[in-house]
Amino acid sequence: MTFTLEQLMAQFNPSFTTLAVLGVGIGSMLVVFGISGVLAGKDPALQRMANQGSRQFNRTVDRGILRPSSADPTGLLKTLIPSNRAERTEVQRQLAQAGLSGPHAVRNYYLVRLFLGILLPCALIAVTWATRTGLIILPESVGDTISAWSPSRLNQVAGLLVGLGFFGPAIWLRSRTAERIKAIEESFPNALDLIQISVEAGLGFDAAMIRVANELESTAPAISQEMLIAQHEIQAGRGRDKALLDMAARTGVAEVVSFANVVLQSMQFGTSTSETLSNYATEMRKNRELRAQEMANMLPVKMSAIMASLMLPALLMLTLGPVVIRWMRYFNG
Hints:
mainly alpha
């Protein structure tokens, strides 16, 4: 026996009250299940996996492994950021050598320069106005000096602050770059020795670089960061030659450039990587010793001018002083 939909509806014939109660019951059940699901939280296993992935991503971002290239300026940024790609690339290279990376590193650099160039003179004018009107009370010597400034003197100091705010970040960037290059030069021999030991112990070259970079993360963060960037690029599918040469260009250290070329030539011609690294380490130590000897041999030449300018007047006074005194007594007597 079969029933049609009309026959079933006619047989049951639910009232409006019954449908309303049924709808309220189903809605209440859905609300209860939703609240319980929210209060129950995520599955512990899924939560651990999500936390591990977020920590790994934060570690990657903090180390500066992901370095997208700066895009061409658009809109108002064209008035701040150089439109010449070569000039912008040079600034980006300096920022990378200083350890400053990110999708907007070049833009932020120029914005900071503009912001400081405007903020410092505006702060000076505001402090001067507040001091003269009595809104703020500075130390007596500072307040009297600022209050005594004439408009021309105030313009001169404001112009000086504009130059300081605009060119100060560039000077700081050069100083930071030189400091980081020096840190890489000092830590690279130890990193090379550790890579050589790791390769001799049976690790591959890429695995050895990753292991050494992780070991040197706290003691030599600069070289560790550059090694991890290179290995990340290799794992992402970039050629090993381009990744290592870019690492050498970012560091700005001649020894790292030679290291990248030696490793690439060894892999290209199929020679032993361990033996190649050992020979290069020995050669690098000899070159460092020769440079130290060269600097030591240049010291007498550099000191000759200082010695002549400081010791020669004293020698002349010692030798000619008694003669001059004797002549003065002779002619005065």
